[in-house]
Design goal:
Helix content: 55-70%
Oligomer: single chain
Order of helices and strands: EEEHEEHHEHHHHHH
Distance between the termini: 11 Å
Number of domains: 3
Largest sheet: 4 strands, mixed
Shape: elongated
Length: about 290
């Protein structure tokens, strides 16, 4: 089952006497990029959260925000534990002097140290650990994944319709070529005689030259490869995991075959049909960019 990179999910969950709102948004992007906003109390678990989110979302530009409200909808209030900050800074200076180290702690680094940011006295909040946080994340991400899969079903359905149209058009091209082989042979024969003018050329050689030119214009290999690409594309649609890059590659290969058919074909009708195939491939490729 294919998954779209576009998704949105919002879950609202009570936990630890508070109300937690988690929003997940995912947009189309070739690689994985995460924007994560979490309350200060969760800062110690940020590396684990990032790794967990990437293992689920895999590709796309993802933003995940966790907001919290008090029992009556009032925002929680945080304060800095200045005594704890003094301990960290004193320890930092001691380590630098003892081991002759360079560097300074930035405000951002200090703010992320455990215990620096805490809820203001008089408010209550849960004691966070990774098990609790990952449980909240999983519920939000599961909902986002369901949305990605629903969008993926729509994409797959559109792909199959377009693949059928390409297959039908390819068969129509084969029929056109077969039905006009004799006429095309005679057309080449007449053209070659016109080019030679009065110069004498035996009939056997004339037929050989015409056959050679006809063979150069044959598109049987291209139509066979096109059908093979179509079947492979359909098989990939039923596979699990990341298949966006594979589908994009197949689109490139199908487009190459269509270009060759259009350039080799000596019939206007075939050129028209090849252009119709290219149009369908381009529409598929635009949508493939949103496949995970």
């Amino acid at each position: 089952m294919i998954r779209s990179m576009t998704a949105f999910a919002r879950v609202s969950l009570p936990f630890g006497g508070k109300h937690w709102v988690i929003e997940v948004r995912s947009l189309n992007q070739r690689y994985f990029e995460l924007s994560l906003r979490i309350p200060p109390a969760m800062f110690p678990f940020e590396p684990q959260a990032r790794q967990f989110i990437q293992s689920v979302m895999r590709r796309g530009k993802v933003s995940l925000n966790i907001g919290e409200e008090g029992r009556n909808g009032e925002p929680l209030v945080y304060e800095l534990d200045q005594d704890q900050i003094k301990v960290y800074l004193a320890s930092s200076r001691k380590i630098k002097n003892k081991f002759k180290l360079e560097g300074k702690l930035t405000v951002e680094q200090v703010m992320r140290l455990p215990g620096v940011v805490r809820e203001k006295a008089g408010t209550t909040g849960p004691s966070w650990n990774w098990t609790k946080l990952s449980g909240l994340l999983k519920k939000a991400l599961d909902k986002a994944v369901r949305h990605k899969e629903e969008e993926g079903k729509k994409l797959a359905e559109d792909f199959r319709h377009r693949l059928e149209r390409i297959g039908t058009t390819t068969e129509r091209i084969e029929s056109l070529v077969r039905g006009n082989q004799k006429a095309y042979f005679e057309k080449l024969k007449t053209r070659l005689k016109d080019l030679l003018g009065d110069e004498k050329l035996d009939e056997d050689r004339l037929h050989r030259e015409v056959a050679f030119l006809a063979e150069r214009s044959d598109i049987t290999e291209e139509t066979v490869r096109m059908k093979s690409h179509l079947e492979l594309f359909k098989k990939w649609l039923g596979r699990q995991g990341e298949i966006g890059r594979e589908l994009d590659f197949l689109c490139q290969e199908m487009n190459r075959e269509a270009n060759t058919m259009a350039s080799k074909a000596q019939l206007f009708e075939v050129s028209q049909e090849a252009i119709a195939i290219k149009s369908e491939i381009e529409k598929i490729r635009e949508q493939v960019q949103n496949v995970e």
